[in-house]
Every structure is written in C-alpha cells, then in structure tokens.
Amino acid sequence: MPLVTSVEMFKKAYAGKYAVGAFNVNNMEIIQSIVSAAKAENSPLILQVSAGARKYASHIYLTKLVEAAVEDSGLPICLHLDHGEDFEICTACVDGGFTSVMIDGSKHPFEENVELTRRVVDYAHNKGIVVEAELGRIAGVEDAVKVNTKDATYTDPDQAVEFVERTGIDSLAIAIGTSHGAYKFKGKPELDFARLEKISNLLPGFPLVLHGASTVIPSFVAECNKYGGKLDGAQGVPEDMLLKAGTYGVCKINIDTDLRLAMTASIRKHFAEHPADFDPRQYLKPARQAIQNMVAHKIRNVLNSSNRL
Ligand code: G3H
Ligand code: 13P
Ligand code: ZN
After folding, report:
1. Measuring CA to CA, how many Å separate 61 from each of 68, 90, 130, 252?
2. Residue 253 CA, ligand 3 centroid: distance in Å
C-alpha cells in the first residue's frame, strides 16, 4: 500500500460527519505510536511534517520513516506538509514524496494569498498532489500578545468562497477561534460556530480544516506539573466542540500539542521515578505508549474516526 492523498479520506469523512486526525511527527517514536493507534482503531490517518520538523529530523529521514510505517502497518497514510510558508518548500515536498501540502499564505493580503496559493495548486495538481490553504489568521503561541480584532482575524465566509473558487484548493483551513499551542483561551473556551456553519453552508461538500485543535487535557497538564512542569493556565479546545465541528464539514483536525504533552509528562514521570536511568529506550518506550494512548483517545472521542477504513 503506497502513501495516499486525502481525497478519498475527506469524501468519506464529509459524508460520515467525522474528521480525520492530522498528527505532527518529528521522530521515529512519534510516528510509530500514532500509526499503532490508527491501526488498532482501523482509522484513516494523516501524518504531517512542519518546516521545523523538516529542519530537526531532515526531509529524507521523515519520508523514509513514514514509508516504513506504511509498509509495516499496511495502512493508507497521507503524508502532508504542515504550514508551508512559500512556494519553494511546497514544491520540495511535492517532489520529495509527500502526497499533500499546505501553503499557508494567511499572513499575506488576500490577493497575494490567492496568487501564491494558485501557483502551488498548479504545481501540485500537475503531479497528482493535493493542496490545503489558509484564510483568516489562526493565532499561535507567537501571536499570543498580539491584539487582533475578532473579525480581522477570523475567516470571512464570503471571502472563503471566492478564495476556494479562485485558487482551486482541495481543503481550506479556517480561523474560528482555535489557536496553536497550550494556551488557547484566557477565560471560557469559545468557538464561532455561527461562522463555521455559514462557511460550511456556502461551500457544500468542501472539506474544511481546523488547526490548533489540541484539547490540552487537564490531567496531562497536572501530570506534567506534578513532575516539575510549569504549565499553569494551559487550556485547549473542549472535546465536544471538536466533535461538533466534525458535523459541519470539518474533515481534518490538526493535533500536535497534546502529543507533546503526553510524551513530556511520561518522560518527566519516568525520570522522577527512575533518576538513575540513562538508556533512552527506558524512557522513550513508555513515552511512545503514552502518545499511542492519546491518539487512540482522539480517534475515539474527538475525531469519531474509528472503523472508517
Ligand atoms: O502548527 C504548528 C505545529 O504544532 C508544528 O509546530 O513548527 O514547532 O513543528 P512546529
Ligand atoms: P495544536 O497546537 O493545538 O496541537 O495545533 C497543531 C496544529 O494546528 C498543527 O498545524
Ligand atoms: Zn496549524
């Protein structure tokens, strides 16, 4: 079974009103744990690589590890570039074995975003590769102190229709209140479902994407803090909101922070309990299991994607 694009995955997800998990990968253990969970749950799966992950592990190691995961598991996996910021990184990934790329032109003015995205779509479609783009700005850890008015940041529904039509993209990441990292809300978590519903109604059948969708499960934050972490005030998107998003055309949900928290909590606990250990296998093995448990939890309770293959 070779790597696949997300086309069939999204068709089924849209019809079935569930979402496919897109999990960020940076090394072998993370890939193994995510793939084991997806295999056990019989779930569709997207593995995504950020520019930072490419820098950390290198393109070739990550693609070869993912190819090994496909061969070992027999799962139809989609390999996706997360937040490609320019034409060059997208074409490098299209030419370098990825089956899906994201061009994130959301920091540019609308016309520039359209033009850049259109160029990437032309290049990728010519080679059978699909493209995700972003309209509106999803806040991130870097943007936490930046003051943006709600409507300047969130995706405008009418513009979304124009953007999809003019670019020919295969999926669209929208901003409705989620954000990257572990500190998503200062007070009560709130997503703009009225906006999501409007976008979804204006783009029937079209796959939407939610970034910044970690739940930041309080027990994991507590576990990290218990063993020396300092994650006070960390808060994510409640699971029921993500499940609801899956019924409004959101076919892809991005999760990274929750895997980092699970891995880090496990490693912190291991060293607190076994301070003399220095064999990486001794602390990476339980960490790998912790990520696997987290991904299985997501597939069952957030994505609703078990037994969809
Ligand atoms: O959206 C960002 C992802 O969580 C990837 O994070 O750029 O630190 O690899 P990264
Ligand atoms: P989280 O930081 O909420 O896990 O979001 C990850 C993401 O959107 C990757 O593109
Ligand atoms: Zn993202």
Report:
1. 10, 18, 22, 25
2. 9
